[in-house]
Automatic annotation (TrEMBL):
Involved in the modulation of the specificity of the ClpAP-mediated ATP-dependent protein degradation. This is ATP-dependent Clp protease adapter protein ClpS. It holds the Pfam family ClpS. Residues 18-96 form the Adaptor protein ClpS core domain. PANTHER family: ATP-DEPENDENT CLP PROTEASE ADAPTER PROTEIN CLPS, ATP-DEPENDENT CLP PROTEASE ADAPTER PROTEIN CLPS1, CHLOROPLASTIC. The gene is clpS. HAMAP family: ClpS. Belongs to the ClpS family. Binds to the N-terminal domain of the chaperone ClpA. The lineage of its organism: Bacteria, Pseudomonadati, Pseudomonadota, Alphaproteobacteria, Hyphomicrobiales.
């Protein structure tokens, strides 16, 4: 008989990690009209009138407000487009992103 060692084949399962999420944050300023902020929130983030108004008021009272949470690419794109909409009208409207903890 031959001395042959048989080793069992092992299967390696790869786990794919979910992409890290980023928050889109609205920063309050004292110059951008409230109606314009609501319009941008409705257009870019597909919010209802009530949702957009609540986010705008929260940012007004607290200074900042988390608008939504997306993957990094989507969050940065939406924040840039919303900020650019304000700049196009001459307002200092600012949206930023940061990683969610």
């Amino acid at each position: 008989m031959a001395d042959t060692a048989v080793t069992p084949k092992t299967k390696v399962k790869t786990k794919t990690e979910r992409p890290r999420l980023h928050k889109v944050i609205l920063l309050n300023d004292d110059y951008t009209p409230r109606e314009f902020v609501v319009t941008v929130l409705k257009a870019e983030f597909r919010m209802t009138e009530d949702q957009a108004h609540k986010v705008m008021i929260t940012a007004h009272r607290r200074g900042v407000c988390v608008v939504a949470v997306f993957t990094r690419d989507v969050a940065e794109t939406k924040a840039t487009r919303a900020t650019d909409a304000g700049r196009a009208k001459g307002y200092p409207l600012l949206f930023t992103t940061e990683p969610e903890e």
